Amino acid sequence: MASVHESLYFNPMLTNGVVHANVFGVRDWVTPHKMALLVLLSELGRAGPQLGLLERRRLNRLLLPLLQGPDMALSRLRKAIEECCPHLAGSVHIRLKLMAEGELKDMEQFFDDLSDSFSGTEPEVHKTSVVGLFLRHMILAYNKLSFSQVYKLYTALQQYFQKDEKKDGADENEMELTNPEELDGKMEKEELDGPLREEEIACSGPLSQKQAEYFLSQQASLLKNDETKALAPASLQKELNNLLKFNPDFAEAHYLSYLNSLRVQDVFSSTHSLLHYFDRLILTGAESKSNGDEGYGRSLRYAALNLAALHCRFGHYQQAELALQEAIRIAQESNDHVCLQHCLSWLYILEQKIFDSCVLLEHSVNKSLHFGLPYLASLGIQSLVQQRAFAGKAANKLMDALKDSDLLHWKHSLSELIDISIAQKTAIWRLYGRSTMALQQAQTLLSMNSLEAVNVGVQQNNTESFAVVLCHLAELHAEQGYFAAASEILKHLKERFPPNSQHAQLWMLFDQKIQFERAMNDGRYHVADSLVAGITALNSIEGVYRKAIVLKAQNQMSEAHKLLQKLLIHCQKIKNTEMVIRVLLCMAELYWRSSCHTIALPVLLQALALAREYSLQYLASETVLNLAFSQLILGIPEQALNILHMAIEPVLAHGAVLDKGCAMFLVAKCQVASAASYTPQKKIEALESAILNLNEAKTYFAKVDCKEQLRDVLYFQARLFHTLGRTQERNKCAMLFRQLHQELPAHGVPLINAFK
């Protein structure tokens, strides 16, 4: 078996006209593209005194990505050089042409002359510089080639140059038929230092070890920060398979394959690649070299820990628990406190699926701080804050805890956790119903990310926190009636997070919810019903809740009530308090429509108690509005007006436009009902005030295109104008009412309708 491996390690191979060796042997090999780079370096040394400072600076910036990146077509290389120094591009082309159209001895002489760059008291290139190391690697790789391999290299150089000549001829024919301005525009869009394109990788041939390492690090960075600029999952996997074909023991390639499989939710491939990564890590001895005798055990325990995280991500909690127990056992035997802290964090995540306990998490945070693990400690604080938010803790205490974690972030420059913290604050303010504060936090994160750029021209704005904030921003705009702005944000999200990316489900859910709300406002219940399936696929609880809302709107009361009862039991079991309150409010409305007003009151009081217990201020205000409506139906409008004044302020300050309109409409109804016992003069004043409130409600409803509510407001206004004897205004409202009544499904319009 050893002899087979040795033959694989050291035998030179020829693929696609490129002479190379396996990465376990020669670390680099000569290709036509690298010969073009050698010619560029040679011409750069000759033209040194004639080059201006700006041209030299541009060429120096160009060299590093050229030396590190994969091979590219000669035409693209020439364009890149022309942008920096047109004169030098011409010299490189002429030198390559002479070599390709000459004889084999010309190429031999070229490599012999390369060594002169290091000679003299003041050499053109220092041996230890980036360029010097590249030149020495190329000279060494060329000297190790046999005569037959040298001839194959020369043939590959001729083919490389001839392809460029043929392409130039085709381009000249196209230029005669193409507008020169359009051609210039296309050329300006090409950037050398940008991420690698699929066609470039596909035609570049096998990579050397250094090129492979650069390719892997670049793609891993893109997967983390800007997934859209990385290669497509299928193309990336194809390139990784190509790398592993030449070097099956390349551990980093297996790990990138694992990350790539996670993008497409492939359980089998991701598990397979992860296990191969740790197997190869032990096989190559990389861990043992850096960690001594502990390297082998360290790989095993972190392999088990990563396997537990993988199973947890895919919802395989039983397998995750078994893998985690194995990691804990090995870490305890090795006395590895850092690994144990990571295990403790994942143990909390697994235990959270069974019962809510802060003990493990608090212990994890304290131990992480003790062992100097700020990243893990901060994540623990974030999780603790999230759990306390769902438990109904006061917002000021949660913000104080997040402030402490922010101090850790800034102290240790943990920029990724700063983004997560701001996204967490946005979500907490949304949970508590403070839309203004949520909007402020969202804008803060967007402003921060627009200033922070990372490698290869990528901005760190394609992370999960950025997606969460943008989704909240889209929903906030939709709630205020700015549907065009919400559509623009969602369009931006679709560009940043394509459907095959790992965070695409976030915007998909928000997009479906916004479309659902618009369809319900417009009275298109059949459209809303068709959207329920998509919402259910992304979030089953939201889907069932929306289905009940559609059934309620279609007057299928018994079916809606059965669905809400099942959903209520499930949400109480999993302790989803926010949804429990929303379900209770929906059930109360069902009781109103069924003329069971007295049954609705205990349900509303239960919802109000929960909202106040868990500090959900906006839901509490909405529940108070529903209680006021119940009191209005029961014939005590004065009491309804009194409690309305308590709850309407948070709704007008932080509520959605539809809720604001419903609140103002309810105030007008209560004013009219209370005016029955007033003196004539006071009654007229009350009705005038009700008309003003109805005008405000009408503005809100028009903003979200809620035609059914607009029709009710116009009917109510027409009746009030008739009572006041204002015939012209009454006729105008009656005409508008008739137009809407003909558009919408025909049903009775009672004077006192449902709250929403």
TrEMBL record:
Its main location: cytoplasm. Belongs to the APC5 family. Component of the anaphase promoting complex/cyclosome (APC/C), a cell cycle-regulated E3 ubiquitin ligase that controls progression through mitosis and the G1 phase of the cell cycle. The APC/C complex acts by mediating ubiquitination and subsequent degradation of target proteins: it mainly mediates the formation of 'Lys-11'-linked polyubiquitin chains and, to a lower extent, the formation of 'Lys-48'- and 'Lys-63'-linked polyubiquitin chains. The APC/C complex catalyzes assembly of branched 'Lys-11'-/'Lys-48'-linked branched ubiquitin chains on target proteins. Signal peptide: none annotated. It holds the Pfam family Apc5_N. This is Anaphase-promoting complex subunit 5. Residues 254-353 form the Anaphase-promoting complex subunit domain. SMART domains: TPR. Residues 30-167 form the Anaphase-promoting complex subunit 5 N-terminal domain. It is found in: Cytoplasm, Cytoskeleton, Spindle; Nucleus. Keywords: Cell cycle, Cell division, Cytoplasm, Cytoskeleton, Mitosis, Nucleus, Phosphoprotein, Repeat, TPR repeat, Ubl conjugation pathway. It comes from Molothrus ater. The gene is Anapc5. One of its GO terms (cellular component) is anaphase-promoting complex. Pathway: Protein modification; protein ubiquitination. PANTHER family: ANAPHASE-PROMOTING COMPLEX SUBUNIT 5 (PTHR12830:SF9). GO terms for biological process: anaphase-promoting complex-dependent catabolic process; cell division; positive regulation of mitotic metaphase/anaphase transition; protein K11-linked ubiquitination.
